[in-house]
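hey can u run this one w/ fe (ii) ion bound, need the structure tokens asap thx
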Amino acid sequence: MSEVTNPLGLVGIEFTEYATPDADYMEKIFADFGFSKLKKFKDKDILYYNQHDIHFLLNKERGGFSAEFAKSHGPAICSMGWRVEDAQKAFEIAVERGAKPATDSTHKDLPYPAIYGIGDSLIYFIDVFGDKGSIFEQDFVDLEEQVVVEDKGFLRIDHLTNNVYKGTMETWANFYKDVFGFTEVRYFDIKGQKTALLSYALKSPCGTFSIPINEGKDDNNNQIDEYLDEYNGPGVQHLAFLTNDLVASLDKLDQTNIATLDIVDHYYDTIFDRVPWVKEDRDKIKEHQILVDSQSEDCYLLQIFTKNLFGPIFIEMIQRVDDGGFGEGNFQALFESIERDQERRGVI
Ligand SMILES: [Fe+2]
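ok here u go:
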């Protein structure tokens, strides 16, 4: 990894931290998705959940940064920890490259070096992982009553998508490019029946995750502006969990309350003509309302989206068979599905 292409030595995502006014609800969602409740941060009311290489923190502190965050945003992703080779060095270089350090009075006593990310959220730099140990061993203690649930095959975070105000997409894209060395992979202009959005996808310099950024178009309460109103600012719109067997993961989710978006029946009239090399059971794909996309022969991806799950935030589940896309072929179907949902709710 060269200095130029990966100036901070970024190597992936270590954790995602949630702030919420309703921790019981979040605990239920995490359990439904197959995350086990294992530990808590030393001396703090911050719970640690795990499934394979996905690490979640649920911040239940009643004061301080996350409590304030939940007050202004409702349920939200208030921070992420990103893996780097040297946390202090990454922090210093990030600040040199234009990031705002989280060293003001509202961010006293942070456990790791941090900068401001999207909205008021934080990005921590974490350099203890893999061969060097684990912050979850070092800084967390086992819960007396752990809640271990069956895992549902979710392996890691594939991507996270940001929603931003009109006219600021480029500013945010430049933040990820200039500070971390993200590169642009794709640009989309998507139109529904009544609304439209622009989307710009960025890939991390380590290649382990990507960040698409969405901005609404026009002033007719498109789904991005609806998010911004409800969330009270820019932030994470959805996280995507990677699985190697989406059908099996969804079979296991059937027993839960997690609801996914309805896809129009005629979607399945043509999808297997467009992507005939799908190996999974086609009846199962249709039954679960899984979306299919492909960029080239023998490569494809399967994906599905929950309805808004906590606040305006939802979860995507994705399986990749040599396909590095975002399901571009489905953007239209998906956009229209959300638009139908907006219409049902009387928003547009
Ligand atoms: Fe996505």
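Residues 159, 161, 238, 240, 316, 326 surround fe (ii) ion (CB under 6 Å). anyway lmk if its weird
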